[in-house]
Amino acid sequence: MAMYRITKFTSSDMDKAQEISESMREVLEGVGADFIDIVSYGDGGGAVVAKYPNQEVMEAATETAKQAFGKMIEAGAIDGASIQVQSGEVLMSF
Description:
The chain is α+β, with helices and mostly antiparallel strands. It has 3 helices and 4 strands; from the N terminus they run βααββαβ. 37% of the residues lie in helices and 32% in strands. The protein has a 4-stranded antiparallel sheet. A hairpin with a 2-residue loop joins β2 and β3.
């Protein structure tokens, strides 16, 4: 069953977060996700929405996701204390 991981965060520099994500494109494309979207809500709020084909692939991608967020935190682009992760199983798609 397909899974989503949604990671909310706040960013003092969304452009920098985007730049770091772009620099990791090849690594992130290789984690097996169906897609990974980075969303800006405005006013520094954002989220990463990732859909995986199943729980196992999502779990295997966890370490890479932590590394990506670690780079953004280290660069001061994301507030590490603001990160909130939720995941869940897809019940239905339209």
